[in-house]
Amino acid sequence: AAVVDYARTHNLAKIVVGRDRARRWRPPYRSFAERLGQAAPEVDVIQVAGGAAAGAAQRAAGNARLRHPRTFDEWPAYGKAAAACAVTGMASALLLPIAGLPGSALVLLLGVVLVGARAGRGPALLAAVLVVALLALLVGAPHAAPAGDLHYPTTAAVMLVVGLIAGQLTAASRYQAKVARRRERRISALYQMSRDLSAALLPEEIARIGTRFVVAEFGARAAFLLTDDKNRLQPALPAANGLPAIDMAIAQWALDHQEAAGPGSHTLVGSPLLYLPLKAPMRARGVLALEVQDADRLLIPEQQRLLDTFASLIAIALERVHYVAIAQETTVQMASERLRNSVLAALSHDLRTPLGVLVGLAEAISGSPPPPADRQAEIARALKEEALRVSSQVNNLLEMARLQSGPVQLNRQWLPLDQVVGGALQTLQWAFREHRIKVSLGENLPLVNIDPVLLERVVYNLLENTVKFTPAGSSVEVGAQVGETSIAIWVADNGPGLPKGREEIIFKKFERGRPADASQGVGLGLAICRAIVEAHGGEIRAENRPSGGARFIFTLPREIPPAPTESVPERAQPLP
Q: Could you tell me if residue 443 is left (phi over 0), alpha (psi between -120 and 50 degrees) or otherwise beta?
């Protein structure tokens, strides 16, 4: 009835049972599967033959601690039952002249019931046999009625049956009480373990708590092997003191296959240690290695479930600690990034005004009458160029702070690409006196849907970056190529090229191609380029040219331009 109720409650369609042996002494015999089929006709019942596994399970059940007491363990109870029968027999003999044989028989029956209620099944059966013998003595006593009048055989049979029933009920109640006590102890252990694990903040604390509970509940020594970020097992934590040598190959196998290995499992049962994966909701966090003194205890289903629950609680605690560390690190990074952006924004705003004044003063010196001497003109020109360079860095700081303050808002317009490139070249013309510029845009480039101010900043930063890191006399090429779904724009040079392995790193904030050289800027230009290009739905990358030099390529999505009836800015004149 319990199996059928469980199957219906959980909406199960199949029940698998072991084939039980027919009992010839109880015809007609119906197997457990037949009774299940009759009680639940809507459920498929599948019988499997019992083999080595069934024999091992039976042996484990025989060795389990939750078993009925063995006979030789209850000699004191049998002795007490015999003593109780002797006392009951003396009382019956004393009452025989007063109450007669029926009253004495009831006293003997009362003794059987009391022994069965206190001592269990075996002592109750012994008491029933002894009181039947005492009853036989009482029947032969001088004050007793004839045996035929008392129906002695019936009374003896009733005493035996009463003794058996009382003993069976007592044994069952004791067994259920023992099961309830062990279940309560398991629940209490799980509660205490979960409470202690919830307060742990380090993996070492979790290992210490897990070891303490494993030793208390299973009498085993434990070791914890945790994983790193690449899902590789690390050496055991300090809780592994005193354990035999841990086989890292078996531990890695248990981690990779998410299955237990060792005694009590289906894999490598000859191993001295049991390796249990610590499976958390996201991924496995390590392996628990156990040295169990009594391996048969691991075959008990209740013990297996308890061990699996322990492993799950430990894994969840390890995952919680892992993500708490990540959250703390992320919080610190966000706070430092926010502070840095605020400082950069404030500093940049304070620098823009004096830089503008410096540029104006340099231009005033160059254009004031009488014309300055050659040395003075050179100083004014150098002052203007340095002021413009610093102003460009300040603009980069402001632009990066604005880009990181929230989603980039694009003011998209349909424009020809050469207009954007021409604007960047016009702004940067002071820097190209010692470089050769080549523009290869073509005449049939389609219109692009872009934010002209931001995209001009991309081209400007790429060109300025090229001028900074290439020697005088180098050539710089700006070109574009139309693809099926995108338009590629590149800026190339024939300079020394990029340091090997830093083609991707240079697009991060405050990173430069050569970290030791901080004289050419703060490392924000390429980071701004990536943020703007990605906001347009494109990609940007850097590479070294086979013929020498570096090349920066960014792509923009190719979209269908508006109809001719719509207002479109006129195409700029071709670049000289």
A: alpha
Give the tens place of pLDDT for each residue, 300-324: 777 788 888 888 888 899 888 888 8
DSSP element (H, E) containing 203: helix 203-218
- Using CA atoms, how far apart are residues 532 and 408, in angstroms rounded to an integer? 8
Q: Which two tokens stand for residue 36?
A: 């299940």
* pLDDT tens digits along 286-298: 888 888 777 676 6
What is the SS3 assignment for 529? helix
Q: Return the bridge partners of 45, or none.
A: 15
Which strands form 274-279's sheet, in the order they lie side by side? 220-226, 284-292, 274-279
Give the Cα separation of 341 and 557 in Å (integer): 30
**Token pair 């509940």 is at which residue?**
217
Average pLDDT over residues 523-549: 88
Which token pair is 74? Answer: 């209850």
**Would you say 545 and 491 are in contact if contact means Cβ atoms under 8 Å apart?**
no
CB–CB of 315/284 below 8 Å? yes
3-state SS assignment for residue 50: coil
Burial readout 225-252 (b: 16 or more C-beta within 10 A, e: otherwise):
bbbeeeeebeebbebbeebeebbeebbb
Answer yes or no: is pLDDT of 390 > 60.
yes
The tokens describing 365, both together, are: 């010196």
Give the separation between CA 415 and CA 418, rounded to whole angstroms: 9
